[in-house]
Design goal:
Blueprint: E1 15-17, E2 30-33, E3 59-63, H1 68-85, E4 89-93, H2 97-106, E5 113-117, H3 118-126, H4 145-150, E6 152-153, E7 156-157, E8 160-172, H5 173-178, H6 190-200, E9 206-210, H7 214-223, E10 229-230, E11 233-234, H8 239-253, E12 257-259, H9 268-273, E13 277-283, H10 286-293, E14 299-302, E15 314-322, H11 329-339, H12 342-352, H13 362-368, H14 373-377, E16 383-384, H15 391-402, H16 410-428
Parallel strand pairs: 3-4, 3-5, 9-12, 9-13, 15-16
Antiparallel strand pairs: 1-14, 2-4, 5-15, 6-7, 8-13, 8-14, 8-15, 10-11
Helix pairs in contact: 1-12, 7-8, 15-16
Length: 430
Amino acid sequence: MSESTSTRRPRSGRRARRSLATCAVLAAGVLVLSACGGSGFSDTGSQGSSDGASGGGQLQVLIGSSGQAETTAVTDAVAAWSKESGTPARVSAASDLAQELSQGFAAKTPPDVFYVSSDLFNSYAASGALEAYGDQLSNADDFYPVLKQAFTRDGKLYCAPKDFSTLALVINTDLWTKAGLTDADIPTTWDQLKTVAQKLTGNGVVGLSTSAEYSRLGAFMAEAGGGLVEDGKATADSAQNVEALKYVQSLMADGSYKFAADLGAGWGGEAFGTGKAAMTIEGNWLVGSMASDYPDVEYEVVELPAGPAGKGTLTFTNCWGVAADSKNKEAAVKLVEDLTSSDQQLSFAKAFGVMPSLQSAAQPFQQEFPAQAAFLAGASYATAVPNQEGVSDVITDLNSQLEGLANGDPQAILQRTQTNLETALKSSGS
């Protein structure tokens, strides 16, 4: 899931009620678009595949779709551009995006335009697979800085951020009220979070639950002023990160925080939706999951409580990659510019629940989707997940260590990660 509903407006600037329906069923499809018409979250899908051929005048567009709503929205947007520009285009939804891209790059027949996840960006860029076109875009300065940073290498913006997600605190309002809590109890500090988590725990319900992974616990590190990499150097074993994990341990020690797997759930959203947890920390993809899987659960979304260093959260994003081997680079860049326009991104937001990557789209997005205000607010202080080559493997190992955090040694976990990070960064030349 990691790597996005009543219609009541928020009662304050930092909280909001749920208000979005979302994408539903996965469906197969490869759609061909021509000039005469025709027809976030995840980086993989199950909607068929593409041969990846980048041929002549027809643009090949490969996406990793979260479902039929996303596939249809992107297909329709490309069709409209195709009709207006006179450039035919073919949209395919990948069953395994990373695998299909790797095959296309190896065969020198990649799609012209495709989704690139931030964790794979540096590997693709280092191998020469990506065209560095981002600085050519007229809206390049409008992207959120943290998103631009995720897709910048050697001072060049390689690709346009497609959209993004952040983490926030999600609260079951029925359980909140039953615990005797009110609006005044919404936590804004770690101490307050601990207090409400304890009050919400009991009768088979745990106060807080998340997955046992850096992409959730990393938010606590950010709130403590830490992180895994800073200025290209490993910082995993910093005092700030140790403090963050010890804080999480303290919640586990009093029973108010359990990992989703320990509750028999696959992820935090499931633990929350099934009523096993009163709160979770998830991204805006949760809105769609709740609407489709747990429509009767009333909840609110608020910003994560500030830690010792202030507010913090993590952000996740993809970009629109253009292949260095594409025979249609000029048309590909023009298509991306259209797909990342404010109007088009707001249309995607309505269709499948993503948040626009343009700062200028923030106000209209918030007006349209007040329930997502807390997610959007995180854009101004979010930290991106490190994306240097080899770091994803280090994070995978860290996740396995975090599974045993309740009885583990935070310092030892982070020292191991520090060693692994230093090796990975040295190998990548960072």
